[in-house]
Write a structure and sequence with these properties.
With about 200 residues, the chain is of the alpha/beta class. Helices cover about 15% and strands about 30% of the residues.
Length: about 200
């Protein structure tokens, strides 16, 4: 690195937003190092975002691979923290979105493929009319998501609270799953319905 490059870098530090940005990058790097240390047999892309850890529970088994742009929100101080567990050899594709809140959980089995741009939402807000929607507490009547082993979730699918997807099931692209999907069945649509079975 040349002396001129160093001077240019120091000159940029006169901007408070640049200092703040560098500080945030440093915190993200520290958290990623902690995640690598906690789950050394998982493969985590450096461009993932994890919020609410270690307050929320996270378990990544050996062989789990999480790709670029995945967002994992285990909760926050206002709504509490949840629990995400991903079992061995499961692949989480780019730009997936996992959302949890207090007392909720998402469990994903072994050898699953979660395609890109999927959302797994373990808790939604209630829709009480007399309270601003952003201040309404989480709905506890439907919560938690369980994904079995050997499941393939197609690109852009949304898996909603209170859903179980059985072993070997396949969810079609852009589907919305809001009910129980039996083992080895293929479901697609909005809302998703049974199309056929894996043979």
């Amino acid at each position: 690195m040349s002396f001129i490059s160093i001077l240019k870098g120091l000159w940029l530090l006169r901007h408070p937003e640049m200092v703040r940005h560098l500080g945030n990058m440093r915190l993200d790097a520290i958290q990623l190092a902690q995640l690598h240390s906690a789950f050394p047999r998982s493969n985590l892309n450096p461009d993932i975002l994890v919020q609410g850890w270690p307050e929320g529970k996270l378990f990544l088994a050996s062989g789990v691979k999480i790709e670029k742009g995945v967002t994992i929100v285990l909760g926050d101080k206002l709504n509490g923290f949840g629990s995400l567990s991903i079992q061995k050899n499961t692949w989480i594709g780019q730009y997936n979105n996992f959302r949890l809140a207090g007392g909720t959980s998402i469990t994903i089995g072994e050898s699953c493929l979660i395609s890109q741009f999927c959302s797994l939402v373990a808790a939604n807000h209630r829709v009480d009319r007399h309270i601003e929607i952003r201040r309404v507490a989480c709905d506890t009547t439907k919560q938690d998501i369980t994904i079995g082993n050997d499941v393939w979730i197609g690109v852009g699918a949304a898996i909603m609270p209170g859903t179980t997807v059985g072993d070997g099931a396949v969810i079609g692209a852009n589907s919305v799953v809001n009910k129980f999907v039996p083992e080895y069945e293929i479901w697609a649509g909005v809302p998703a319905i049974k199309i056929r079975e894996r043979t």
